[in-house]
Amino acid sequence: MQTIPTFIYSMINCKCLLSSGDTGESVSPPKIASSPTSSTVREYNSASFRCKAEGLPIPVITWYRNGSSLIVRDRHTAQPNNTLLLRNVTFSDHGTYTCLASSVLGNDSVSAILTVQVPVKITQGPKSTAIEGSDLRLICAATGQPKPSISWERLGSTLDTKRLIVDGATFILKSSKVSDSGTYSCRAENLINFETASGSVVVVPKLHFTVSPPQNVTIFAVETSVVVTWSRSNGPQLTARHRTLANGSLVIEKASLADQSTYICTARNFLASLNFRVGVNIYFPSSCSEIKRAGFSERKMYLISPKGLTPFAVHCDMRDKNGIGVTVFGTLVSGFENPGT
Question: Residue ranges of the Fibrinogen C-terminal domain (predicted)?
C-alpha cells in the first residue's frame, strides 16, 4: 500500500492519492450553503431559522442571538436538519440570530433578524380631575410592537384644538374650563390590532369669595377670668401650710401664734386688681371640755389658755364622761392607764 503523504491542515483543496490510484475527498473550510432568512411572527407563534453549511471536516453549527451564545433548550430547540426552532415566541425573543459554522479549518457565519409583533394593550386610560384655569392632563399608556399610535377624541363634542397639545400618549388641554368636563377617549393602534379606553373628566370651578373680608381687623382681647392670691402684710412669707383653694379661700394648716397676722387677698383680671385685708387672731381654748365641744376626740396633748394665761400643754382625756373633757395636769407615764398618776 502506498503511503499517504503528510499535509498541512491549513492547506485548501488538497487531494490525497489512495493506493489504488483514486482521488479522495478534498478538505475545505466551512462555508454557509443555505442561509437563514429574516422573518416576522406574532407573539406566541413559532419561528424557525435553517442554516446549512459545507466543508470538510463537517462544520459544527452554533447559534447566537444579539452576539451572545444562545442556550438551546426549552422553547429553543435545534432540529436534525440544522434548523433552529423557536416556540411560543415573546417580544424578548426579537433580535438578530447568527448561524456560525466552524471547524479546525476556520468558520463562516450569516445572520437573520426575527421581528416579533405584539398586539396593542392599553395599560392606563384617560381619567382626571382638574381645577378651573389649570391645565388638564390625560394619559393613555399602551404597549405593543410595532409601537402603537395614539389618537384622542371627546365623546359627544369636538376638541378645542387651539388649547390642545398632544404628545403621543399625553393629552394636555390648556386653561381648562368647567365646560371641558365630559367623557374622553383614546385609541391605541398598530399593524395587528387596536384598543380604545375612555374615562370621565371633571373640571371643578375655581373657588372665589362672594363677600370679601376686610384686609385688616382689630380685635380687643378681654380676659374675664379672675386670679386670687394671698400674702401677709408683714412677717414671714407664706409656707406650704398656707394653701389657696380653687374658690380663692385661704387654709392655714396646724395654725400657731406665728400665723397671727394681717393677710391680704388680691383679686386680679386683665384690666384691674382689688385688695382686701383680713386680720387673723389665733385663739387657744380654755379647757379640754371646750376642745371636745369643738369636735376633737383624740386623746393627746393640747395647748390651752385658761383665763388668758400664757398657753401651755396639757393631756386631754377625751373618753366619754358625760360630755366633759377631763384636763389632766402632769406627765403621761408609760405603763399607767390614767395620765398624771
Answer: 279-341
